Amino acid sequence: MDPRLWLATVSGAVTLGYLAIRKLLDYDPREPPLAPQRIPIISHMIGLYRRTYNYYSDVYAATGAPIFTVPLPGQKMYVVSSPDLIQSIQRQHRAFSIDPILMKFSSIIAGSSKESDAILQYNVYGDDGDHGVAHESHIALRDGTKPSNIDEMNRDMLREVSSSLDLLEPPIGQTKRIKLYSWLRTTLTSATTRAVYGPMNPYNDQSIADAFWEFEQGIMPIIINILPTLFARKAIAARAKVSQAFYKYYTSNGQESASLLTRLRYGVATRNKLPVEDIAKIEIGGTIAIMVNTIPAAFWTLFYVHANPALLASIRAEVEACIETAPGEDGTVTRTINIVTLKANCPLLLSSYQETLRYVGMGTPVREVTQDTYLDGYLLKKGALIQMPTRVVHSDPKLWGENANDFVPERFLPENKSSRPKESCFRTFGGGKTLCPGRHFATNEILAVVAAFVARLEMEPVDKEKGWEAPTSWNTGAAGQIMAPDRDVEVDIKRREGVEEGWRWVVRVDKGDKVFRMVTEDFGDE
Asked: What letter would DSSP give residue 419?
């Protein structure tokens, strides 16, 4: 063996052994029970590498513990599997805070200056009141995405979705072949960013959109932050390209004609004296928030609806019954799909969408313990991290029944409420202070795509042998909360029988505060 390799191996083993002993000696019996492992520290690392988002489900299945301790090199983790404990953590947002993690994450992925890093970290623990970038950003996100404040965003997004479907729909008797995930990524990237960033949207340039997705795919080495210039050169170059486009956007006052959300967020940055160069860099994190999870959610909803012919027929009938048909004076026919009408009259569509989010949700909300705190009789130590894996809650048979690991489209029908757990057990959008603020906009977007798709088009997989066999999702990006498919699905698209040439299709959402309620907090939104 090469002496250098031997030395590196021995040094690594000694370091891991030291860290393992240190962590074990650091364990306090008042803390949550230690997760079982054959080899201290190493077993957890191997498990997380091999099983990724399923590892904590494995540990929970073996222990049944509502909370357990996972010591890792350099960091102690408390993993919470109980929805009731998760709710308690969310209520104690001072003792268990997301802000220090968010601000550090923002600066790492953005590559912002030390000056801006100090501004982002200012008052992250709230000791100096509810001001500073972290706290003001929560308010801006909340206000900018209220159902009553996203009408303009909805209108712009739906116009883009309708236009893309017009281009996709082939003439009668003809077929178009597309890669479904790629088509959705292109369509929803355009629709979402134009709605958020306005007419001067940097992503109008396809090369900027491509650069963003290259960055997103290579984000993990940047997050780990070990020699990123060596291991993440392409991602860093792509990030620089996106940042330069946003610098031009902000210095040209593009935000002034953008959505309320963009204007509010820019106001937070300028009030806190972030340099425009760093505002442009940090905005790549904003793009992650608005896009990375909507696209796989739309993909899986379309996939599972089409994989079940009976389900497709039933949802198609629901949607068809909601379509308004209006002949024009010139002989044209306008067919209108109203999202508000769908929400009121398509229970199976809504149930299938929510079940998709439950079935493919794999996010892990994280909090930092800011002070020694007792939770359910256990001591949680300052400086440790809390993880609340969605996958554990969503796959728990004690909550969802023996079919917890099956896709059941009827699960969220109103008449089945008594056979499913309370709303706090649905964790795809997180909860508490960090409940996903864009969930209403994303829901409108996905429902629009799915409803218009089933109303206008027929779709079948090109690979008849695989059929609607679900792709694996082991390589989902580090920023993802929804599983992304490891392979694309090539499909043939044709115009649905009975859909005439020349029909004009419109997708709209009426103004109003009514929402599709999926999480506990939504029941206070109306």
From this structure: G
Query: Does 334 score more than 50 pLDDT?
Result: yes
Tens-digit pLDDT profile for residues 207-250: 999 999 999 999 999 988 888 888 899 999 999 999 999 999 99
Which positions ≥6 away from 499 have C-beta within 8 Å?
169, 455, 456
The answer to whether 79 and 35 have CB atoms below 8 angstroms apart is yes
pTM of the predicted model as reported, rounded to 2 decimal places: 0.92
| Among 62-76, 206-220, 359-373, the least confident range | 62-76
Could you give the CA distance from residue 118 to residue 515 in angstroms, rounded to a whole number?
A: 38
List pLDDT tens digits, range 479-507. Answer: 889 999 999 999 999 999 999 888 999 99
Tell me how far apart the alpha carbons of residues 449 and 204 are, in angstroms, rounded to a whole number: 20
- What secondary structure letter does DSSP report for 476? -
Bridge pairing between strands 67-72 and 378-380? unpaired
Distance CA 118, CA 446 (A): 38
DSSP state for residue 456 in the 8-state scheme: H
The C-alpha atoms of residue 337 and residue 164 are separated, in whole angstroms, by: 15
Question: Which stretches within 309-382 are classed as H helix?
Answer: 309-322, 339-345, 347-360
CA angle 249, 253, 258 (to 5 degrees): 85
CA atoms 243, 244, 247, 252: torsion sign? negative
Can you tell me which residue has the tokens 């929560």?
A: 138
Q: What's the distance, CA 415 to chain centroid?
A: 28
